[in-house]
Amino acid sequence: xxxxxxxxxxxxxxxxxxxxxxxxxxxxxxxxxxxxxxxxxxxxxxxxxxxxxxxxxxx
Length: 59
What we know:
This protein is mostly helical and 59 residues long. It contains two helices and no strands. The longest helix is centred in the C-terminal third of the chain and has 26 residues, at 33-58. It starts with 8 loop residues before the first helix and ends with a helix.
């Protein structure tokens, strides 16, 4: 009944993923390669969570 008020976790994760990629881009442009690699690793973890949610929704 109140499912219209629930936020879609997939949208939330996609938004978080895009933000991490943008942070990584700015770190790389500023010459912070170590920071870039750490942020990219975090983004990959989020991407894995997104894949897991997508596979759960299909199954």
